[in-house]
Protein 1
Amino acid sequence: MIDLRYGHVAYCTLSWDDDYGTAMPVPLPVLAWVPDLGVFTYRAGSGSGSGSGGAVAVAAQPLSGPAAEPPAAKTAADLSALYQRFHAAPYWLRSG
C-alpha cells in the first residue's frame, strides 16, 4: 500500500494460500530484500504476536487473478498501531 501523502510504501500484505485466505499487513521496515533469491523475507515473531520467533517466511509474488482484491485503506491510527506492533520506526516521523 502506497502512502501518497509521503510517497512511501506504508505496508505490504503477506498472504498464505490456505483455506482461510489469511493475510497480514506488515510494515516495509520489517522486511528484507534478498537479491540472490529475488524475494523479501520477514522474520516472524518480531512483534507480530505469532510466537514463532526465528521462522522466516518468503513473500515473492504480487496479488493476481480475479479473486485478488487490493487491501483496504488504513487510517492514520491503524497505521501507527501497525508500526508499533512490529516495533518499526514510522516513516512519517523521520526528518528529511
Protein 2
Amino acid sequence: MFRLHTRIFLAAAIAATSLATAACTDTTIAHIAAIGDPGRVTCYSGGKLVLDDFSTGKIKNAGQSDGYEFKSATTQRLQQASGDCQVDYGAKIMPGWKPTLPGLLVDARLQ
C-alpha cells in the first residue's frame, strides 16, 4: 500500500515538474540560470566601439532607461552604460583581449 502511494506521488511530482518546465521558454530558463553570472558588455555609439568590458557579477538594467550597470572586472568600479549595448553572459576573456572603457587611455588612475 505504501509503495502505491509513493509511486502515485512520484508520478504526480514528475508530471508537475514536466508541465512547469515545458511552460518556461528557453529564454526564461537561461535568464534564471544567469542570475549572478558575470558577462561581457559591449556598447557602440555611431557604429564605433565605446565600451567593451567584463563584469564581476550580474549586469543590471539601470532603472527605467536603456542602460546597464555593472562592476567592472577591469577597474573594480561601478560602470554605467546606455544606448546600443550588447550583454553576453558566459563570455570568456580571450587571450589578447583589451578593455575599451571611457577614459581608460587618458586617465592614469584607470591604467
Protein 3
Amino acid sequence: MHNGLTNETTFQHKEKKFVLHPLAPFKVFKDQIQMKKLRDDERKEESMCKELGEQAPNACIHEEGESSAPPKVTQKEKNLSKETLLCK
C-alpha cells in the first residue's frame, strides 16, 4: 500500500510489516555515480579480456565460471539495504 503523503510503500510478507522509504536526492545521485563507475570498470575489463584473448586464449577467467559460490555482497549494498528497508 502506498502512502502519498509520506511517499512510503508498506507491505506484509510472512506476517512481518515492511516500510520502504524513498531515498534522498543526494543519495540517489551518489548511487548513480557509483553504478556508472562500476559499469565503466566492467567495460574496461571486458575490452582488456578481448585484447588478451586474441593474443593468448584462456588469459581471462570470468568470475561467473570460477565457482558456484553465491555472489559477494559489498559493504555499500549492505548499508543501502539498511537505509532503504526498515522493518516495523
